[in-house]
Amino acid sequence: MRISTIQSYDTALNSMLDQQSKLSETQLRISEGKRILKPSDDPIGSGIALNLKQQIASAEQFSKNGQTAETALQVTESSLASVTDILNRVRELVLQGANGSLNYQDRESLAIEIERRYDELLGIANTQLSDGKYIFSGFVSATQPFTKDIAGNIIYNGDQGKHVVDVNSSVTVQTNLSGSEVFAEIPTGNGSFLNTADASNSGTGVISAGSLVDQAAYVPDTYSVIFQNNAASQLTYQVQDSSGGVVIPAPPGVVPADAPLFVEGANIEFNGIQFQINGRPVAGDTFTVEPSASQDVFVTIEQVVDALRSSTATESLQAAMQNRINNALTNLDRAMEHIDQNRSIVGARLNIVESERSINENIVVQAQGSLSLVEDLDYAEAITDLNRQSVALQAAQQSFIQIQDLSLFNFLG
User: Which residue range is the domain that position 282 belongs to?
Assistant: First the structure.
């Protein structure tokens, strides 16, 4: 087979170009520190590396979501802790106000401080994140959740929206609490029923908060405890339900002949309910037992202030104030329990975020380790290849120099 001069040149040139290409690719691998530069270098390895990179990207995004959730939850938890501190202080002030030795000016001073605490509480209810979003507004986070209307009533302007983020492929966390569920949805009384004294009572009876001693026997209704004298001028009481039906004395007992005598501090029980009345009611006095309802904490504090500012000019008015203060204390206790429950919810969510963050960090570390095994370069092997390819290129170049001057015409003279 004849080989022309041009063929010799092409062969030598292609050899040099091939060696240069291999050398350049090896140099690039060394500079990048990667074994796989393009899928064709290792199709199987490339597929594995792509999957690992997707795992890393997902875990890192979940970690970022967790950081956002953690910030919001930490601000919420801190706000609720401040609410607890305020309510504790208000409760201390109310207990001071319940002291019968205080005069009006003393109780007025307590009421003024409570009003300041009220304003602090309103400020906390309108807490914002660093980006200006309100944490208790639900979905309408740009809207201030609590404002006062013309009459001074607190209005909730938010909604019940729940902000939820993914902190793992199968785990979501709610990052907020609505202002309604934190500050408004608080049961009154002991959580089952609320005891109140009629404003027109002229005796000195003070009713306790009571308790539910038999859930199965409890019939939710509005009951009236009515005092009257029997034929012997003894003070008795009867209990009627909302329809006027007599509960005590139990039918077929006749009122007031069969009505029980009132004994100060003794248990009054019916339909699973138990409470006591201290002091001395008089005939015509009435107390009401009604199912618990929801009340916001702002109304509770307003009731506290009103109770402290009420008149105590007579013994009956002192008893009326004591009944109102007792109700306020009971409602404050429910509010504090309610806030503590919400703090527990936030704390549990923070624990989930922290746990999932640890899981995501481990996923990133493990995936990065696996990715390194798949695509990272063996420098010793690569440098050996570089040296070998460099020698091969030099040999090709030297060969080309040797043969480029060879021609048949050089031997014809």
Answer: 193-292
